[in-house]
């Protein structure tokens, strides 16, 4: 067959076309999206998904707790704590006396008290000179916040132990832990200026919170109640008994408080 024969030209052209198609097919998989995923895109997405729970766990280790407001002669003081890893990392007063010279004293005292709370990690901090009432109220609310922080940590620890012990045993442990924390209200004690009645929260055989649900009010009685009750509450928690000191200038209220406190302790078995 001659080189210029038409059939030969057709055969050569067909062979060239087939070769080009084969070459294109062999190069296509390298740019295929499916191939890119097989090369490692899916593992990268999985790693990103694993990082999210870790970030959530870190955030869960940080919490905020606000103490009860402590009443002072010049207004309430209330402290909020930020806790991380069981330590106080930030303290701030969400309520503090204001108006007139009270605002000046608050601006002077609160930053120092906040810093002391973080440094000491407890309510055992020094009062700021010239702001005794604010300092006292701050320490009372700070102690309340710390008590709540400890109670929350105890609850978390109990829940962890219960989940590790198994299904039925865990339920029993949880019920036992709930039974240890209870609130008891003492009998109302009658005083010359009105009844005084105390309610306490007991956990693990210790008073974790005390409050007066009834106290003398009206005229100077309200002022004395605002002055005396926060101190009596704090003393009840600190001492863990009704053997607490009376507040000067509020003898009747103090006496009634101690009587009702003892009644509550008797009911609680303490």
UniProtKB/TrEMBL annotation:
Superkingdom in the source lineage: Bacteria
Organism for this UniProt entry: Streptomyces hintoniae
Residue ranges, compositional bias (Polar residues): 217-238
Residue stretches of biased makeup (Low complexity): 34-50
InterPro entries: FMN-bd, TAT_signal
Bias kind Gly residues: ranges: 161-175
Occurrences of domain FMN-binding (ranges): 73-149, 192-268
Protein name, as recorded: FMN-binding protein
Region (Disordered): 31-71, 153-179, 211-242
Phylogenetic classification of the source organism: Bacteria, Bacillati, Actinomycetota, Actinomycetes, Kitasatosporales
């Amino acid at each position: 067959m001659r080189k210029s024969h038409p059939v030969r030209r057709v055969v050569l052209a067909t062979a060239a076309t087939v070769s080009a198609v084969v070459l294109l097919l062999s190069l296509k998989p390298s740019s295929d999206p499916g191939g890119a995923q097989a090369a490692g895109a899916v593992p990268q997405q999985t790693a990103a998904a694993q990082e999210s729970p870790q970030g959530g766990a870190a955030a869960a280790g940080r919490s905020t707790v606000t103490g009860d407001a402590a009443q002072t002669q010049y207004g309430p003081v209330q402290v909020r704590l930020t806790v991380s890893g069981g330590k106080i990392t930030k303290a701030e007063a969400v309520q503090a006396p204001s108006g007139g010279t009270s605002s000046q004293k608050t601006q002077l005292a609160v930053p120092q008290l906040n810093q002391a709370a973080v440094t000491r990690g407890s309510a055992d901090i020094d009062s700021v000179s010239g702001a005794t009432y604010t300092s006292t109220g701050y320490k009372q609310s700070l102690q309340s916040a710390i008590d709540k922080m400890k109670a929350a940590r105890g609850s978390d620890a109990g829940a962890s132990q219960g989940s590790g012990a198994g299904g039925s045993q865990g339920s029993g442990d949880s019920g036992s832990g709930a039974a240890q924390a209870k609130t008891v209200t003492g009998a109302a004690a009658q005083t010359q200026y009105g009844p005084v009645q105390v309610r306490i929260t007991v956990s693990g055989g210790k008073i974790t919170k005390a409050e007066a649900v009834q106290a003398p009010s009206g005229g100077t009685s309200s002022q004395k109640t605002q002055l005396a009750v926060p101190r009596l509450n704090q003393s009840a928690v600190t001492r863990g008994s009704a053997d607490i000191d009376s507040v000067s200038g509020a003898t009747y209220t103090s006496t009634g408080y101690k009587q009702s406190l003892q009644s509550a302790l008797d009911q609680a078995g303490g």
